[in-house]
């Protein structure tokens, strides 16, 4: 439960090894969160010292994005460890390589299942719990890649487009329940997952994404962009003629 002044006390991270997800959790711990559950395949150990030295108790649970039948159980296990969930961060996914996906359609389908359908089952399981509690926020890591899908990563981008739409619809379904959804649209973020990708303009660090999330949770925002300049930029890009859009490399 949130404490007497409304600060987040409990956090569940779906995708317990995500660098961006862990940066968000650390930011929330610095703001007062004291119980953290890291959910990942095979469990996830906390980064050395980063969370426990800040005073948080850290737990680990099993979570397989590709096993939707187990997602409700994962949420229930987290609740059993820390009680009500104040914030759930949905940060799992794979980036992959577009050329490899085109050479191996089956691998593309598996990646799309993780990047979209896994979030559907996990998101609905979380929403059911938050609705039952009557409070809590689900933070969904979308991407500008899904705002307008580009040639160089359209398998990944199309899944993010689906996820973004799902998150917005889920937010509407929770309206009036006391629970809410915060959609996060980062641009290029240099992490281990993106190490094979050429840098893009207007990058953001995991810490900057975490700061945007913390600010959005405090303000009651429904969507945040990281960096913020991407919001007006993509408003224009949505209107760009298809022939010109097709020529963009990034």
Automatic annotation (TrEMBL):
It comes from the Bacteria. It holds the Pfam family adh_short. InterPro entries: KR_dom, NAD(P)-bd_dom_sf, Sc_DH/Rdtase_CS, SDR_fam. Keywords: Oxidoreductase. Residues 9-191 form the Ketoreductase domain. Belongs to the short-chain dehydrogenases/reductases (SDR) family. This is SDR family NAD(P)-dependent oxidoreductase. It comes from Streptomonospora nanhaiensis.
